[in-house]
Design a protein that fits this description.
The complex is a heterodimer.
Chain A: E1 3-11, H1 17-25, E2 29-33, E3 40-48, E4 51-57, H2 69-81, E5 85-91, H3 95-107, E6 112-117, H4 119-124, E7 127-129, H5 131-138, E8 142-144, H6 153-165, H7 179-192, H8 196-201, H9 204-212, H10 216-221, H11 228-246, H12 250-269, E9 270-272, H13 280-288, H14 294-334, H15 340-357, H16 360-376, H17 378-392, H18 400-405, H19 410-415, H20 423-432, H21 442-452, H22 455-484, E10 493-496, H23 504-538, H24 549-555, H25 560-577, H26 579-587, H27 599-607, H28 614-622, H29 633-641, H30 653-665, H31 670-680, H32 684-710
Parallel strand pairs in A: 1-4, 1-5, 5-6, 6-8
Antiparallel strand pairs in A: 2-3, 3-4, 7-9
Helix pairs in contact in A: 3-12, 5-12, 7-9, 7-11, 14-15, 14-16, 15-23, 16-23, 20-22, 21-22, 21-29, 21-30, 22-30, 23-31, 24-25, 26-27, 27-28, 30-32, 31-32
Chain B: E1 6-12, H1 16-24, E2 32-38, E3 44-48, E4 51-55, E5 63-67
Antiparallel strand pairs in B: 1-2, 1-5, 2-3, 3-4
Classes of the chains: A alpha/beta, B mainly beta.
């Protein structure tokens, strides 16, 4: 029987950790979530010698403090799950900072192997690393690797197995914090060891260091201990004592000592033969993040991205629609005409799957472009370029890309917020994102602008809607910052990677990782939502019709026009008498103050919850024009001629505008709701988003309609 | 901060968390750094060791450096 071994991979962001993980596990990967948080947990398995090795990819972190969720997750995994070996991936060209994380693993007293990765880069920069010396000084086995060329992976596994089997001669060392601190640590440790439960799980030395560092999570853990008051009072005494000596907080001194330890090791085992030169990246940056040129270049890049994704996804979406139609016809022919089962399969299930698939081209393409921006290193620059501007609305530079993506589709936009570290910033960005007018809302605008505005005004009206969306998003972001997610913007520091030409494989993996999440998680919810709306608008299946349509249609067989009209009338009546029709009638008074209290519109808006463009199709059915799209003249005329019971025209430009504003702002589509659920990991925020956006939509439409009326528009 | 010149980080004026985060990323007191890009009152890019770091809006005001 083969033996089991668990290895955790850790390391700084940009250290090549992901590449090592991919090298080791290949396609045997599994992506999940750590319990209770949205941090991704990647696992993979491989066979090596007579071991079944389970590799866990910990989140990339710079440290193991309790300041960020990633760090807490990584730390808890190491402490709670006790992996057999930890491999810490070190960027050899950046030893000082990368070893800082390693010192913290050393404190945890767990079996540790260091992979000095990018050792070829280090050679190029004429850094001479003495491996044995480093190994001795740090007290851990070290392996040179070049992950991008798949070099050193077997050595890494060899060392891990050797360490696991206890066949290593390297003696562990400790960071020396200096006499004063070590004395205080000893005092704290002496109390900790009294609690047998505590030391079963944690190393007393590590606890003492963390407590002295004033680590909130660890201090909280002390509550469970029977010695908690004794421990905490000793901490207080020690902190006070050390502050008196060093005139600084203990955590700062401890950090300083760690860096001291590292630079001590580096001065003995590392030779720098030349100074860091200005690199090609720096030269490119002279242009791309230039104070004057940076922003315009970025805007052009964004514009190109939209051109690219829309141009390419349009035909793909057309094919999906064709496929859906073909399948629909196929099953429609196979199943009894006019039966509920036919409708369920054709309109409900195939239609539902179609609504999931229709987003696939645009989402995958946008993710592909995003992956390119990210892997090439440009994404990090855009954060820098946009930071100042975004700061004015209470967000970070990081929130800008998700906001812009929202103009294409809110789904990838909301998923792109993952790069925002701070939870508050991230949630605010998610919650205001649906106000960015996505592509699916365009057909609705096109229909109504075409019907009620002159050719000349059309462009301005459309533009004003987009601007309104942005304005509402900015205002809401400010309000959320003030009331819901209070507190200062988290200060942000971010590493700027060098420019790199992305590999096709890397791009495809990234695209697939994110797109797959959409398909798996959001797909199910969208599908269920579609079937639900199908049910609401088709049942009761055989309502009490006012005329006997079937007989009438048979009688007028030869008059094609007549048959068509009868069929449209039947579809109209069926929908009017369906549950959706009933709900539409029940809710339409709500829209009276907004000027569009028509049950047909209410049904259309209800359908818009599945996807905003459905509003158009539903109105087509309800206006006797059968299948309609946004360019349909018949539907436009029907809307223009629609009257109220008193004979006055139902629509005028003001009512149409209020309606478009409502469509822009009201409830995000079911897919967005599903993605918000997925990204916030709770039902609370999607439900909140559904209600608050609808409330805002109502209020804004109300002010526009009533205000417009007062000013004398649209009478 | 003078651009394109090596300076030494003298002090960070900010809360414990800010200091800890900067330290974790290699910006500990006494480290040598170089300002590569600096938008007035906005964010900046600094070179520390072999790493380029973006410091977000308002951070530059909290970091004090001295020239050698």
């Amino acid at each position: 029987m083969s033996k089991k071994l668990t290895i955790a991979l850790s390391g700084n962001p940009n250290s090549g950790k992901t590449t090592v993980f991919n090298n080791l596990t290949g396609t045997h990967q599994h992506v999940g979530n750590y319990p209770g948080v949205t941090v991704e947990k990647k696992e993979g398995i491989l066979k090596y010698m007579d071991y079944d090795i389970n590799i866990v990819d910990l989140p990339g972190t710079y440290s193991l403090t309790a300041y960020s969720i990633d760090e807490i997750v990584a730390r808890n995994f190491v402490i709670e799950e006790k992996p057999d070996v930890i491999i810490d991936i070190i960027d050899s060209t950046n030893l000082e900072r990368n070893l800082y994380l390693a010192t913290q693993f050393m404190e945890l007293k767990i079996p540790l192997v260091l992979a000095f990765n990018m050792s070829d880069e280090a050679k190029k920069q004429e850094l001479i690393l003495n491996r044995d010396k480093f190994s001795e000084l740090l007290g851990v086995p070290i392996v040179f690797t070049v992950a991008t060329k798949n070099q050193g992976m077997d050595d890494l596994l060899d060392e891990a197995v050797k360490l696991f089997e206890g066949n290593t001669e390297i003696k562990r060392t400790n960071v020396d914090y200096g006499k004063e601190i070590e004395e205080e640590l000893k005092k704290i440790e002496d109390i900790i060891v009294k609690d047998k439960n505590l030391i079963q799980k944690y190393s007393p030395h590590w606890l003492a260091v963390k407590l002295l560092e004033n680590d909130n999570e660890v201090i909280k853990k002390m509550d469970e201990s029977t010695y908690s008051s004794e421990i905490l009072s000793q901490i207080k005494k020690s902190s006070h004592h050390l502050q008196g000596i060093f005139n600084d907080t203990p955590d700062a001194i401890i950090a300083d000592r760690r860096y001291g330890f590292i630079s001590g090791a580096c001065s003995e085992a590392l030779q720098r033969t030349c100074e860091v030169h200005s690199t090609i990246s720096d030269k490119i940056d002279k242009v791309l993040v230039n104070r004057i040129l940076g922003l315009p270049i970025f805007l052009v890049v964004m514009w190109l991205i939209f051109k690219f994704t829309f141009k390419l996804s349009e035909p793909l979406m057309g094919w999906i629609e064709l496929g859906q139609e073909w399948l629909g016809n196929l099953f429609g022919g196979l199943l009894p005409e006019g039966s509920a089962i036919q409708s369920l399969i054709v309109d409900g299930i195939i239609g539902g799957v179609g609504s999931v698939l229709i987003f696939v081209p645009i989402i995958f393409l946008l993710f592909l472009v995003m992956a390119f921006l990210e892997d090439s290193g440009y994404m990090a620059r855009t954060v820098f370029i946009m930071d100042k501007l975004m700061h004015k609305i209470g967000l970070h530079g990081r929130s800008f890309i998700p906001m812009i993506l929202g103009f294409g589709c809110n789904l990838p936009a909301i998923m792109a917020t993952r790069t925002i570290e701070d939870k508050k910033d991230r949630f605010v960005t998610i919650l205001v994102n649906p106000f960015m007018s996505c592509g699916a809302r365009l057909p609705v605008y096109t229909l109504f602008i075409g019907a009620f505005f002159s050719q000349k005004a059309a462009g301005n009206v459309l533009f004003s809607l987009y601007l309104l969306g942005i304005a509402v998003a900015i205002i809401m972001a400010k309000i959320f910052r003030k009331f819901l997610f209070r507190g200062q913007l988290a200060p942000f520091v971010m590493e700027l990677p060098s420019y790199r030409l992305p590999t096709i494989k890397g791009l495809l993996i990234h695209m697939w990782e994110r797109g797959g999440v959409y398909l798996k998680k959001a797909g199910t919810v969208i599908f269920i939502g579609c079937v639900l709306v199908w049910f609401l608008s088709n049942f009761p299946w055989n309502p009490q019709y006012s005329k006997d349509y079937n007989t009438l249609i048979e009688q007028t067989q030869d008059n094609e026009e007549m048959v068509m009209q009868l069929e449209n009338e039947k579809a109209f009546e069926k929908m009017e008498k369906s549950y959706a029709g009933m709900i539409g009638k029940a809710i339409s008074p709500v829209f009276k103050p907004l000027g569009f209290d028509d049950w047909k519109l209410s049904v259309g808006l209800l359908g818009g919850f599945i996807a905003k463009e459905i509003v158009v199709g539903t109105l087509g059915t309800l206006h006797f024009v059968g299948e309609a799209d946004e360019e349909s003249e018949g539907l436009r005329q029907s809307l223009q001629n629609q009257t109220r019971p008193d004979g006055s025209k139902f629509f005028n430009p003001l009512v149409a505008y209020a309606l478009m504003v409502f469509v822009l702002l009201y409830i995000p589509c079911v897919a967005s709701i599903a993605v918000i659920k997925r990204e916030t990991n709770s039902w609370r925020w999607p439900i909140f988003a559904a209600f608050y956006t609808t409330a805002i939509a109502w209020l804004v439409a109300f002010f526009i309609y009533q205000g417009g009326k007062l000013l004398g528009f649209g009478i | 901060m003078p651009p394109d010149k090596e300076v030494t980080l003298a002090a960070i004026r900010g809360g414990r968390e800010l200091r800890a985060r900067l330290t974790d990323m290699g910006l500990n007191e006494g480290v040598k750094l170089k300002v590569l890009h600096f938008h007035r009152k906005g964010p900046c890019i600094v070179l520390v060791g072999n790493t380029r770091l973006v410091l977000g809006y308002g951070m530059a005001q909290k970091i004090f450096v001295k020239e050698e």
